[in-house]
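Comment thread on ticket #2218

A.B. wrote:
> Attaching the input chain for the structure job we discussed in standup.
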Amino acid sequence: QVQLVESGGGLVQAAGSLRLSCAASGRTFSSYAMGWFRQAPGKEREVVARISANGANTYYADSVKGRFTISRDNAKNTVYLQMNSLKPEDTAVYYCAARYSWLPNYDYWGQGTQVTVSS
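C.D. wrote:
> Ran it. Output below, let me know if you need it in another format.
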């Protein structure tokens, strides 16, 4: 199993930047593909970005492509989400999640961190 703890959320003005971090427990972090998801009030949770276990492959939702960057440091058991050019519509609770690289479902979730972008 893996435990995930997000940090780095906060209040930022539009066009600003934030970097989210997700620290994972355990010794097999490099076995997990990781993802960042978000959920805004009254909306369903949506995927923001994903990264493969070795970091070679990434995916971004169209709404964040070109503004957000997902990365990971397997030596530090941490995955990051660099968010630039933030918009008010990026306001949400952001969650990181992990899945074994050979399985389709994200089974492990953090508690979430609030990101609020003011206009």
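A.B. wrote:
> Thanks. Noting for the ticket: The chain has a mean pLDDT of 96.
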